[in-house]
From TrEMBL:
Domain Gram-positive cocci surface proteins LPxTG: 452-488
Keywords assigned: Cell wall, Membrane, Peptidoglycan-anchor, Secreted, Signal, Transmembrane, Transmembrane helix
Coiled coil location: none
Originating organism: Fusibacillus kribbianus
Database matches in NCBIfam families: LPXTG_anchor, srtB_target
Protein name: Sortase B protein-sorting domain-containing protein
Origin organism lineage: Bacteria, Bacillati, Bacillota, Clostridia, Lachnospirales
Length: 488
C-alpha cells in the first residue's frame, strides 16, 4: 500500500464496505474473503515494517510533516484505533501506534537505520491524550464479550445502518450482548467526514444511552447521556455508547482492590465515600483513604487569634478587643468567629494633642527671643506649625522630637506685632494650640500717654483760666466805663 493512499479514516467513502465486514472479523456476510470464525481474523491498522498509522495519515493528507503533531491527524489516528478495538477478531497494533509513532514516512523499514525504527519515548508525553485514549479502548474491549468472543456466537448480534456494501463516510451499528453482568447493548458510530454528522441508529430498541467514548476520551466511565436514537458525532470521531439500564444495573460483583479510588475496578461505580479530615475556612477536608480534598470549605472553622483591647493615647491609636483569623484574614467581634467585622471597626482614634509646655508666654515687641512650645503629639505625626491660623514658613521655626517641640526663631519673633497671638502645632491626630502675648515697648506707652485726654481736676484748668480772663476783662471794662462817666 502506497503511503499516498487514503483509507476510511481519511474520508475515503469506498473503504466503508471493507470496514463493515472487518467489524465482524469477516466471519459473516459475503465479502471478498471469509473467515470461519473471529479467532481466524487479525484486525489492525498498521503493522511491522510498513508505514506507521500516523505516517500513513500524514503522507496521504499532507496535513503536516512526519513526526509533527497535527490536531486533525491525531483525531484520525484515534479513529483508526477505535475501529480496531471495536471489531471482532484478534486486535493487533504496531508498537507505538498509541503514541502516534513515526518512522519519517518509511514504508519498508526492515533494513532501515535503528534510529528510524526506534521508538521515541518522548511521544508518551507529547501524545499522552492518545495513549490514554487507547488504554480506554482496551478497557472497553475487555468488558464487552462480543468483541473478544472467538467463535460465531454473536454473528447475528450486529445491526448495521444501511447496506453492507454502501460507500459512506459514516458507519453505524449496534451489538447485542447476553453475557450476565455486562452491558446489554453497545452502539458504535464512526464518522470520517470533516464535519460533525447526526446519525440515527437503525436499531431503536434502546432509547437511553450512556456515552463511554468520544473523540477525546474513552473508557468505562460515563462521559454523557443521550435520549433517543440520534447522535451527533464530531468530525473524524468514533462514538461508543451503551444502554443506560445495563450500565446502571450491571450484575457483576463490584470489587475495589485499590480502595484509594473508591470505585469498582470493573464498572467504576463509586463504592465508598470520602471520609475523615477537617475542612477549614480556606481548605477542604482531605480524605483519610485517598488523600484527596472533598466537599466544601467550612466557613465557620477559623484559626482565630485574640487581639486584646488597647487604650488610645495621643501618640498611638487604640483598639477594641477582637479576633483575627490567621488563615483567611477575616476579623470577628467574638471568639467563636460568628460576628464578622472590619478592621477599621476595632480602631479607637488617637486623643487630640495639646500644648504641655510654653503656654501663656509673654515678650516685648522687638525682642529677639526664641519662643518654644511643646505638643504631646508624636513627632512622627507632625504636619506643620501655624500662627494666628496661617501656616508658618518652615524657615521661621525649628521642630524636633520630644514629643513635638516647635521653636519660633528669635529673628522672626522680633517681627511680631504687639498683641495676643495664637500658635498651633498641627499633627495627624489634631492641632495643639495656645496663645502668647507680645507687649508694646515702654516709650510707645509714653507717647500714647501724651495723646491721651486729661483726667481729674487738671482737665478743667483751661476753663478756669478762660473764666478768669473773662472776669478780668469785665472788671477793666467796668472801671473804664466809670471813669468816663465821672469825666462827664
Amino acid at each position: 500500500m502506497s503511503i499516498s493512499n487514503q483509507g476510511f479514516v481519511q474520508g475515503a467513502e469506498t473503504s466503508a464496505p471493507d470496514i463493515r465486514y472487518g467489524v465482524s472479523a469477516n466471519s459473516s456476510g459475503g465479502n471478498k474473503w471469509l473467515a470461519s470464525a473471529p479467532s481466524q481474523c487479525v484486525s489492525y491498522a498498521s503493522s511491522h515494517d510498513n508505514a506507521t498509522l500516523y505516517d500513513q495519515i500524514l503522507g496521504s493528507t499532507g496535513l503536516a510533516s512526519y513526526g509533527v503533531r497535527e490536531s486533525t491527524a491525531v483525531k484520525m489516528n484515534k479513529l483508526g484505533g477505535a475501529i480496531v478495538y471495536t471489531s471482532q477478531g484478534i486486535s493487533f497494533m504496531l508498537a507505538g501506534e498509541e503514541m502516534c509513532r513515526s518512522k519519517d514516512g518509511d514504508t519498508n523499514s526492515f533494513k532501515s537505520h535503528p534510529e528510524v525504527n526506534m521508538i521515541k519515548w518522548q511521544n508518551v508525553v507529547d501524545y499522552a491524550d492518545v495513549v490514554s485514549y487507547y488504554k480506554g479502548l482496551s478497557n472497553i474491549r475487555k468488558h464487552f464479550t462480543p468483541l473478544t468472543c472467538a467463535d460465531n456466537s454473536y454473528s447475528d448480534a450486529y445491526i448495521f445502518n444501511g447496506n453492507m456494501t454502501d460507500a459512506s463516510k459514516q458507519i453505524a451499528f449496534t451489538i447485542a450482548n447476553d453475557t450476565p453482568g455486562e452491558w446489554s447493548k453497545m452502539a458504535v458510530i464512526y464518522n470520517s467526514d470533516s464535519a460533525p454528522t447526526e446519525i440515527t441508529l437503525k436499531d431503536t430498541s434502546v432509547t437511553e444511552w450512556v456515552v463511554i467514548a468520544n473523540g477525546v476520551s474513552a473508557g468505562v466511565e460515563k462521559l454523557d447521556e443521550v435520549s433517543g436514537s440520534t447522535f451527533t458525532v464530531p468530525a473524524y470521531t468514533a462514538l461508543i455508547a451503551v444502554d443506560k439500564i445495563s450500565f446502571d444495573t450491571a450484575g457483576h460483583e463490584c470489587v475495589d482492590e485499590d480502595p484509594k479510588d473508591h470505585k469498582c475496578d470493573i464498572c467504576r461505580k463509586i463504592l465508598s465515600q470520602h471520609t475523615g479530615g477537617t475542612a477549614t475556612c480556606i481548605s477542604k477536608a482531605v480524605c483519610d483513604t485517598c488523600g484527596e480534598e472533598y466537599d466544601e470549605l467550612d466557613s465557620t472553622n477559623h484559626n482565630l487569634e485574640k487581639i486584646p483591647a488597647k487604650d488610645a493615647t495621643v501618640t498611638a491609636a487604640g483598639n477594641k478587643e477582637y479576633w483575627h483569623c490567621k488563615d483567611c484574614g477575616k476579623y470577628f467581634a467574638d471568639e467563636k468567629g460568628t460576628n464578622e467585622i472590619k478592621l477599621e471597626d476595632t480602631v479607637i482614634s488617637k486623643f487630640s494633642p495639646e500644648i504641655i509646655e510654653g503656654k501663656g508666654q509673654s515678650i516685648t515687641a522687638g525682642d529677639k527671643k526664641e519662643l518654644t512650645f511643646k505638643s504631646n503629639a508624636a513627632f512622627s505625626d507632625f504636619v506643620r506649625a501655624q500662627l494666628d491660623g496661617k501656616t508658618l514658613d518652615e524657615k521661621n521655626y525649628t521642630v524636633k522630637e520630644g514629643s513635638t517641640v516647635v521653636t519660633l526663631k528669635a529673628d522672626y519673633v522680633a517681627t511680631l506685632s504687639a498683641g495676643k497671638h495664637s500658635i498651633g502645632i498641627v499633627s495627624e491626630s489634631g492641632t495643639a494650640s495656645t496663645t502668647f502675648t507680645v507687649n508694646a515697648k515702654a516709650e510707645e506707652n509714653a507717647n500714647n500717654d501724651t495723646k491721651s485726654p486729661q483726667t481729674g481736676d487738671s482737665s478743667n484748668m483751661a476753663l478756669w483760666i478762660a473764666l478768669l480772663f473773662v472776669s478780668g476783662a469785665g472788671v477793666i471794662g467796668t472801671t473804664v466805663y466809670g471813669k468816663k462817666k465821672r469825666a462827664k
